[in-house]
Amino acid sequence: xACMKLGSKSEVFYLDGQSWLCSTGLPSDVIxxxxxxxxxxxxxxxxSRSEVLESFMKELSSENEKSVLELHDLPGGAKAFLLVxxxxxxxxxxxxxxxxVTLRCAAEYLQMTEDYGEGNLIIQTENFLNHIFGYWTDAxxxxxxxxxxxxxxxxxxxDSRCINSLVLKAADPSLVNLPVSSQSVVQxxxxxxxxxxxxLTSKVAPGEDWWFEDVSSLSLPLYKRFMQxxxxxxxxxxxxxxxxxxxxxxxxxxxxxxxxxxxxxxSGFKSNASSPSEADQRNLIEEIVEFLPNEKGITPxxxxxxxxxxxxxxxxxxxxCANLERRIGAQLDxxxxxxxxxxxxxxxxxxxxxxxxxxxxxxxxxxxEHDAIDSxxxxxxxxxxxxxxxxxxxxMAKVANMVDGYLAEVAPDxxxxxxxxxxxxxxxxxxxxxxxxxxxxxxxxxxKAHSWMTDSEKEQICxxxxxxxLSLEASTHAAQNERxxxxxxxxxxxxxxxxxxxxxxxxxxxSDNLESSQNxxxxxxxxxxxxxxxxxxxxxxxDNMKERVSELEKECLRMKQDLEKMMKSKGSWxxxxxxxxxxxxxxxxxxxxxxxxxxxxISPASTTPMEEKAMEVN
Length: 618
Prior knowledge:
Elements: E1 4-6, E2 13-16, E3 19-22, E4 30-34, E5 37-41, H1 43-47, H2 51-59, E6 67-70, H3 77-89, E7 93-95, H4 100-110, H5 121-132, H6 136-145, H7 150-155, H8 158-171, E8 192-195, E9 198-201, H9 212-215, H10 220-232, H11 237-251, H12 278-291, H13 301-313, H14 318-330, H15 337-340, H16 355-376, H17 380-388, H18 395-410, H19 418-426, H20 437-449, H21 455-462, H22 472-479, H23 486-512, E10 524-527, E11 533-536, H24 538-570, H25 573-580, H26 609-615
Parallel strand pairs: 3-5, 4-6
Antiparallel strand pairs: 1-7, 2-3, 4-5, 8-9, 10-11
Helix pairs in contact: 3-4, 4-5, 6-8, 8-10, 11-12, 13-14, 14-16, 18-20, 22-23, 23-24, 23-26
């Protein structure tokens, strides 16, 4: 820590109870009272340095009695005045970052200007302040002491000068000079300099977050002013957000006690004498959220979600919670499923998890994502291509998978009403799901937990999934799922057979064109579904096709077995189709499929000659 030595005389002051006495041998002729402490001093050393003390002494002048002067409003109190008295008597003393602010304010209060002696206390303290402003650690220590004399420090702009010097160094680490004690740097004895008793070390702190821990030691009012200064200086939003996150984690114990929320309340937090009260934590998190940068993706989504849980547990203002929900919604694709499982700790704990909160965040995401799609392309097909292609999942697809997982987690709660479940699931557009296995699983869990649902309600919830987009595994499970309405089971079976028929037809189409697509080198040019041409050896091509047909035959056999189970457990096939509103004539395995009746809601596409050829395989 930097220091500057003043005075040359040996110590002459000693404490007797609550009184400071002077051992110069001369009887004191003035008593200075500051609160409970009194100073028995001499007039001449004081009036020779202070305009205020001189004017007071003239007013209290008495030949027979000691003058008594009350200075209860002196900045820094008795502690600061003791140093002032030492300065006036020329006693050895040290200016340090820990006392220079209060001494500067006390000197201003007493008007210790150059008119009352060259090198008076005002100029000495100003020179020292200007010097330590160039050093990170000393400027930080001086700023902390401003709270002791805040009004005077603000009038003299000491606090703002400290903050400005710190902001400049935080924005540009090359300007940092650290005298000693920062934990973020390593000091080398070779780098130390000595100037008028001041030990100096010039360092460049590594990393952009080197100052986070230092400024987190500031009180909230001073920290807010530091962050305001950082914003004014156009510091990178990433740095501002990083510092705010660090400060919040350090000063809000509940933010790191998420396990206490599992029971739906904050009673798991045990405060102690050194921990801030819940009111202080609530005020702090509201302030932190207000300062967070508005740019999307700057603040970690996990921190925002944990902050939201904490804000709810502390019953923070509705504007604070809404602000967090909006920020999370804008980058919901970066969230994890477990972080969305926010316990319902409101006044009406209807459900285990706060589904309404997730609904609002999802609505925000859809607004942002819709605007993003509109700004890049007016054609939704481009987004569908990205979702269904081999590229990494789009934000919409990630959120779709997460919402399906969330629905499966909340589905066992018997208090989750059907409209609430439907509302959350229906926000996701159909194109966002490459497969509907996730939503099917959530529906199945919901049906199992809500066994009292009517057939009409079951059909309503099943409309949330697209039976055509179920994988073979999910289709097989659905075909045997007794919880599903009969209509849905038949839809699953129908679309699975339709996919099987289309697949076989595609292979026969390739077989018919093998000879015509043979190239000069003896290889085969096969046409893919996307129109591209690939070269294959004829023997390998036939072998691959035989293997594929064998797989399709196994799938077909599996589907027939499922049909047999359905016929045994739920009636004949004709009765099933009758409930769907149409009949299907029995036919041999090589017969063509008859046309469906007009009443059917599930109408297969009219068969083409190619599809008829494919059906003959069965």
